[in-house]
Predict the 3D structure of the following.
Amino acid sequence: MSSAPSPARGFDHVETWVFDLDNTLYPHHLNLWQQVDVRIRDYIANFLAITHDEAFRVQKDYYRRFGTSMRGLMIEHGMKPDDFLDYVHRIDHSPLEPNPALGAAIERLPGRKLILTNGTRTHADAVLAKLGIDHCFEDVFDIVAGELSPKPFPEVYDKFLARHGVDPTRAALFEDLARNLAVPHGLGMVTVLVVPEKTREVFREYWELEGHDADHVDHVTDDLTGFLQRLPDRLPLDRPAGGPR
């Protein structure tokens, strides 16, 4: 006989708030990450001397099998990552606009706030600055800090937790890909999937849309700002909201 699903974890014990960056802290419809996606394809086409159609196939195959296209290129072709990272993140951040409501909602949360991203710190700094929320976060843990190991591989979460002294049983993670929440949930983190409706324009592969109703997803929201604004009402009153420390 199958057991009933575990109840979703709450937030009253959370002291560290961890956020993914792309397609989580800004709306999917801006398609900022789509610029990176195109530049990855261009890089692969040039690096492997193949057509863009073939580069697209390689890109998605490596992304699924290795976590990032970069990791696949490193493993399969011995690519050095520095030029790749610099090239693919050289994008136009102008579609982003300040989001003071999101910043205020993040600042009200009690405890530490950190970024955990498969992108670079340079890209993360640019995004946070454009959104006007860079002051909200203590630090950014990027793909370089993870020694080029991306989410969803377990080692990147272990490195992140160790680097920042985070107790996963007292932390929450906000992500736009369900598969990136499986390991954190297993470590004891509260998991929140941030995926609006009509995401096919952003997530073009069927497997990227899987897992929304998985046991390792505690909460799902299509409005991160609204979700965070409602959280303090459910948190203990004697826990002051805190910014970077």
